[in-house]
């Protein structure tokens, strides 16, 4: 054993002793970690996007709101499922965790099929090999990022690295040194390390000279509890850290696939032996029904496209009638959407929510005036400016507060108050619009909007009474001219069995203002219901009913 490795193990030994009461090995050889509930996230109503994580560490100080949105959603989803895992540990319930097994080969053409493992419908992962001979790692195939990283043998001071296999460069005959520093932020977690180059084996395909990150520091407990070792990004090079060429790009450039597409089938039956599969170079017809409906990629960074209306019980919510942006993201467990829509879903499903004081004050103080303005055919985008709660910038309302900057560009609490009031007003206008379509009375509208003010999404997840799932309404997305419907059993996630079961809403809130938003992130809840093809040549995403 080398000097550095011995030193690292000795340094970490005291931490392992401290954690010995929390970490135990079951009869099946799996290490189980007792988790504690983490504090609730910061206020999502006044600060819908986190302060800063860089989209590309090589791009100076540029911060992109979509990257921030993805990070926020993943942080919240990770917290929800971490709490579910903690409940699982407390109840001593044992989930099936069979081995992933060998990679199956496709019968014809240049394709690779990688079977996926499903962990409680929250994480899907498969096996790859790095180096020659291959060193195996379990990774998430993530369309919301573009880099490949695995733990490094030089990771000494992170507890997570001692619970996952580590890449040892000296054991590979095809390793090439690089050394460029790199870091990636995922939600509230992050990894730090440096680039190396080696061959990567995926199914029966071998990608030569692939750059990847050796993670030497994995702070926090997110990756410690993760069932995967690393992440293989399938997004576009535009979001790759340091501009590194993604694995998928090299697959295409090296002629390893005869069709420049890859596809996902995610099995939503967590107790089934087949967790799903990803096919590089094609798709498997036995995992979908009918033909795919394709929509064009509108931003070459994430797999982003235009989405039309969103409906609850077949009725429009009024949020996306003029179009919204959406991202198909295999690395996100849930579906994230505008907070106003999620509040409507909570109200219809009886999901637990939290009250929003700004919304309540706006409705009680200005509700009747807002309705009268809408009745007089005042454009909805101007209603809040007419009553003095927002300014109008020619397209939509903006905060009416006078901008004050303190310190290093930070806005004052007065600005935040104006922002919150303006946002609450515009949300209430959207709700009222949807009620106008249904010809409800003024009193009925005010009562409905008042209920929604008490149904705002909770930052720690929204829970539903498991006994009432069958009576809930469906929700639908309009994409590419087709309506994609989700039934309650598809968008409600059930954790546990019997009277101890918990049912979690598959929706969470995400507010991205125009022109980037409104934005939806369609994660595993949606991709599990609809087989998804990512077409690199045609720059499009296709959805078909999963089989």
Automatic annotation (TrEMBL):
Domain Saposin B-type span(s) in chain numbering: 354-394
Signal peptide: 1-25
Cited PROSITE patterns: ASP_PROTEASE (PS00141), PEPTIDASE_A1 (PS51767), SAP_B (PS50015)
Entry GO MF terms: aspartic-type endopeptidase activity
Catalytic machinery residues: 142, 329
A biological-process GO annotation: proteolysis
Domain of life, source organism: Eukaryota
Domain named Peptidase A1: residues: 124-544
Coiled coil: none
Cysteines engaged in disulfide bonds, as pairs: 155-161
Keyword terms: Aspartyl protease, Disulfide bond, Hydrolase, Protease, Signal, Zymogen
InterPro entries linked to this entry: Aspartic_peptidase_A1, Aspartic_peptidase_AS, PEPTIDASE_A1, Peptidase_aspartic_dom_sf, SapB_2, Saposin-like, SaposinB_dom
Gene3D superfamilies: Acid Proteases (2.40.70.10), Saposin-like (1.10.225.10)
Family: Belongs to the peptidase A1 family.
Protein name, UniProt field: Aspartic proteinase oryzasin-1
High-level lineage: Eukaryota, Viridiplantae, Streptophyta, Embryophyta, Tracheophyta
Gene label: LOC123070187
């Amino acid at each position: 054993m080398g000097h550095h490795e011995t030193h690292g193990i000795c340094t970490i030994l005291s931490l392992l002793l401290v954690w010995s009461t929390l970490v135990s090995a079951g009869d099946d050889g799996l290490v189980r970690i007792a988790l504690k509930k983490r504090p609730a996230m910061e206020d999502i109503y006044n600060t819908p996007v986190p302060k800063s994580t860089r989209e590309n560490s090589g791009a100076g100080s540029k911060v992109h709101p979509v990257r921030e949105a993805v990070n926020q959603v993943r942080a919240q989803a990770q917290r929800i499922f971490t709490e579910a895992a903690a409940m699982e540990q407390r109840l001593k319930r044992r989930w099936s965790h069979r081995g992933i097994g060998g990679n199956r080969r496709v019968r014809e053409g240049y394709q690779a099929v990688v079977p996926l493992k499903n962990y409680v419908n929250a994480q899907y992962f498969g096996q790859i090999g790095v180096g020659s001979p291959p060193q195996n790692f379990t990774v998430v195939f993530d369309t919301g990022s573009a880099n490949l990283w695995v733990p490094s043998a030089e990771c000494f001071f992170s507890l997570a690295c001692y619970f996952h296999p580590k890449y040892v460069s000296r054991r590979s005959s095809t390793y090439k040194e690089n050394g460029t520093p790199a870091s990636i932020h995922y939600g509230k977690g992050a990894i730090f390390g440096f680039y190396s180059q080696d061959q990567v084996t995926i199914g029966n395909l071998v990608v030569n000279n692939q750059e990847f990150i050796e993670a030497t520091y994995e702070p926090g407990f997110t990756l410690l509890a993760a069932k995967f070792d690393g992440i293989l990004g399938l997004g576009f090079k535009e979001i790759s850290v340091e501009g590194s060429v993604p694995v998928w790009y090299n697959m295409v450039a090296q002629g390893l696939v005869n069709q420049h597409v890859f596809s996902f089938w995610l099995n939503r039956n967590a107790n089934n032996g087949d967790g799903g599969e990803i096919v590089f170079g094609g798709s498997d017809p036995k995992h979908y029904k009918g033909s795919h409906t394709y929509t064009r990629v509108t931003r070459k960074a994430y797999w982003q496209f235009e989405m039309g209306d969103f409906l609850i019980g077949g009725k429009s919510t009024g949020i996306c009638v003029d179009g919204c942006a959406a991202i198909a993201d295999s690395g996100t467990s849930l579906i994230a959407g505008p907070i106003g829509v999620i509040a409507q879903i909570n109200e219809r499903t009886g999901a637990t929510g939290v009250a929003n004081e700004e919304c309540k004050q706006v409705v009680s103080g200005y509700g009747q005036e807002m309705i009268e303005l809408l009745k007089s055919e005042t454009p909805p985008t101007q209603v809040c400016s007419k009553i003095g709660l927002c300014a109008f910038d020619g397209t939509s309302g903006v905060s009416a507060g006078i901008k004050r900057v303190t310190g290093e560009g930070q806005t004052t609490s007065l600005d935040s108050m104006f922002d919150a009031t303006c946002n609450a007003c515009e949300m209430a206008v959207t709700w009222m619009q949807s009620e106008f379509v249904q010809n409800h009375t003024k009193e009925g509208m005010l009562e409905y909007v008042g209920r929604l003010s008490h149904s705002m999404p909770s930052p720690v997840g929204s829970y539903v009474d498991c006994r009432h799932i069958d009576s809930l309404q469906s929700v639908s997305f309009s994409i590419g001219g087709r309506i994609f419907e989700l039934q309650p059993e598809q968008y409600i996630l059930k954790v546990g069995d019997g009277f101890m079961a918990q049912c979690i809403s598959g929706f969470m809130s995400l507010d991205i203002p125009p022109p980037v938003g409104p934005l939806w992130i369609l994660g595993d809840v949606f991709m599990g219901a609809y087989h998804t093809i990512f077409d690199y040549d045609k720059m499009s995403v296709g959805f078909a009913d999963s089989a």
